[in-house]
């Protein structure tokens, strides 16, 4: 990929357009997709109407590439992350995500699953 020239204090500096604030696009997408395993973050997205934006919904679909083994290995919590990503593909779930009862149930189930056998 071609490098982009940026001017800083009169000197040209080469930067890779695939990096944002020092992070690669993949690192940012990996961090974001993992944040979806947090039910409160899903509720935040619902409250702020992100799920009403067709481009954002398409982005959620795009993130399904994390299901492939070569990307799955980078997820710290693959089970909850992929489950949330799966649920977010459903329009009804995106509508229901604003419901505190649903979010509380998801958080409780996640806690119970994480502490099972302790």
How does this model look, in words?
Helices cover 55% and strands 12% of the residues. It is mainly alpha-helical and 118 residues long. It has a two-stranded antiparallel ribbon with strand order 1-2. It is globular, with a radius of gyration of 18 Å. Residues 1-8 have low confidence and may be disordered.
Structure summary:
The protein has helices spanning 25-35, 39-47, 54-62, 69-72, 78-87, 91-96, 100-115, and strands at 4-8, 11-15, 19-20, 23-24. The chain has 118 residues and is mainly alpha-helical.
Task: Summarize the SSE layout with pairings.
Blueprint lengths: L3 E5 L2 E5 L3 E2 L2 E2 H11 L3 H9 L6 H9 L6 H4 L5 H10 L3 H6 L3 H16 L3
Antiparallel strand pairs: 1-2, 3-4
Helix pairs in contact: 2-7
Model regions low in confidence, pLDDT < 50 over at least 5 residues: 1-8
- Shape descriptor reads globular
Order of helices and strands: EEEEHHHHHHH
How much helix is in the residues?
Answer: 55-70%
Question: Regarding quaternary structure, how should these chains be classified?
Answer: single chain
Give the termini distance in whole angstroms.
48 Å
Keywords summarizing the entry:
118 residues; two-stranded antiparallel sheet; 7 helices; 55% helix; 12% strand; disordered N terminus
């Amino acid at each position: 990929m071609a490098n982009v020239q940026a001017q800083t204090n009169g000197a040209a500096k080469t930067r890779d357009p695939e990096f944002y604030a020092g992070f690669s696009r993949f690192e940012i997408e990996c961090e974001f997709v993992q944040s979806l395993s947090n039910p409160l973050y899903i509720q935040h997205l619902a409250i702020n109407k992100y799920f009403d934006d067709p481009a954002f919904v398409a982005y959620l679909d795009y993130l399904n590439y994390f299901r492939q083994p070569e990307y799955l290995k980078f997820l710290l919590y693959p089970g909850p992350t992929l489950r949330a990503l799966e649920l977010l593909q459903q329009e009804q779930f995106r509508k229901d995500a604003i419901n505190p009862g649903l979010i509380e149930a998801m958080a409780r189930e996640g806690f119970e699953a994480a502490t099972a056998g302790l």
